[in-house]
Amino acid sequence: HLNGQSVRAAGIPSTGTHWAVLGEAVVSGGQAPLPVACTQAYGGLAYGATGEKLPPEIPNYSTLANDLKRWERVVLRVYATGEGLQVKGKPYHFRRLATTQYDDGVPLYTGKTAPLVNLGWDDEGIIRITHYTPLPCTVLMVSGKIDVGEQ
């Protein structure tokens, strides 16, 4: 059913033990050629995932709705997450990258990420999280420090 369509693929290269993004391929005759031999692989139509944290409010404070806000620091807790995570459009690199294009991929990461700082002022204070690679992504927690008031 995907013949003639472009798919994105991920796999474990036969020389490695971790998942790697293998790029795009066009399906022909029910098959999509991969750039490297793999012990496991999967492919599908390309899409990205997006989630948003609700605008912040502080207990016993009238409202933050009319105030400018800036996330000074944001930390995520993730589970078995692959590269490709972005927070407010800024890439989150929380581990080493592969040494060559398809050598061994990159291990999936579980734990707290390093802080991403100074995400800019706006009137909403919403944190948008996106993931755009064909690797798993599970965000368990979003926390941080927010500044409210004048720029």
Brief descriptors of the model:
single chain; 151 residues; mainly beta; 5-stranded antiparallel beta sheet; 4-stranded antiparallel beta sheet; 46% strand; elongated
Give the secondary structure arrangement, pairings included.
Layout: E1 6-13, E2 20-26, E3 38-44, E4 49-53, E5 69-81, E6 85-87, E7 90-91, E8 109-112, E9 116-117, E10 121-122, E11 127-131, E12 138-148
Antiparallel strand pairs: 1-2, 1-3, 4-11, 5-8, 5-9, 5-10, 5-12, 6-7, 6-11
Question: What this model shows, in words?
Answer:
The chain is an all-beta fold and 151 residues long. Strands 5, 8, 9, 10 and 12 form a five-stranded antiparallel β-sheet that branches. The model has no long low-confidence stretch (mean pLDDT 85). It has strands at residues 6-13, 20-26, 38-44, 49-53, 69-81, 85-87, 90-91, 109-112, 116-117, 121-122, 127-131, 138-148. The protein has no helices and twelve strands.
